Amino acid sequence: MTLLGPSSLNIPHRKVLNRKENKKLIKKYLQGEIGWSDKSLKLMKDNIRTLLRNEQEDRCIYCRRIIKIDRRNVSEDIEHYLDKSRDYYKKWAFSPLNLTLSCRPCNFVKNTKDLGDPSMRTTNNILNGVGRFKWIHPYFDDYHANIEIKKGWLYSIKQGAPNPTASAQMISNCELDKIERIERIGEEIKERQSRITDLMLKCMAKQQHARSQKLGIWLKFEQDRNWFDY
To answer: Which of 65, 148, 208, 214 is most deeply packed, by most CB within 10 A?
Structure first.
């Protein structure tokens, strides 16, 4: 089985957040002097994006599809697992264990869902085992031990998952069960090309060279015809 992205995240962006100049900016944000979209935060956020992209292997933390590098980062969002728009989670806006990257659709669907429990509203630190999270946590839970993604973008709770309740909640709330339909065209193209490839390999094994060549030409035609579609 191909694993799409890391099982859980490390925190390479901690070093960015700990820079002296950035600590000052974070303090101003937490005191309400500047907002999340303030231009003074752009460089820090760009650095965080770069490190998280590399850590997540260019994949959304939730759906695990590739996030395209777009002209103005419109395909991705710096995702706050505990939503920063809620007053009691604002203190976690720059906590390294609360920051990931998500694709825009997943972030839109997640919206302002409260993924913590009441204990997370009062604790001073985000720690594994302190409070309960409604979805699997990108730093504390093993994604691939909990959720299986099969060809065709079919999401299911893995047998023996250590956190099946949070896995089911994330699949449902994040509408991962709808991605099969969204990716249908690309999957049909890949499946068709895979069938041609399999036939060509069987012909080659039987030394049916003329038929193998025809299948190779057909495969090249399929690839060229659908080059921009998946």
So the answer is: 65
What is the tens place of the pLDDT at every residue in 126-180? 888 778 899 999 999 999 999 999 999 999 999 999 999 999 999 999 999 999 9
Q: What pairs with residue 76 in β-bridges? A: 103
Residue with tokens 């999270």: 133
How many whole angstroms separate alpha carbon 219 and alpha carbon 21? 55
Task: Judge whether 166 and 146 are in contact, CB under 8 Å.
Answer: yes
pLDDT digits over 196-223, tens only? 999 999 999 999 999 999 999 999 999 9
What pLDDT score does 125 carry? 83
pTM of the model: 0.89
Nearest 5°: phi and psi at 78?
A: -70, 115
Question: Which tokens hold the place of 74?
Answer: 């419109």
Gap between the Cα atoms of 45 and 52, Å rounded: 10
Whole-angstrom CA distances from 214 to 112, 130, 131, 205, 227 are: 54, 62, 61, 15, 20
Partnered with residue 157 across adjacent β-strands are 147
Best CA proximity match to 72, nearest among 45, 98, 110, 95: 45
Measured CA to CA, the distance from residue 203 to residue 215 in angstroms comes to 9
Residues in the chain: 230
Reading the block at residue 159, the tokens are 């047998």
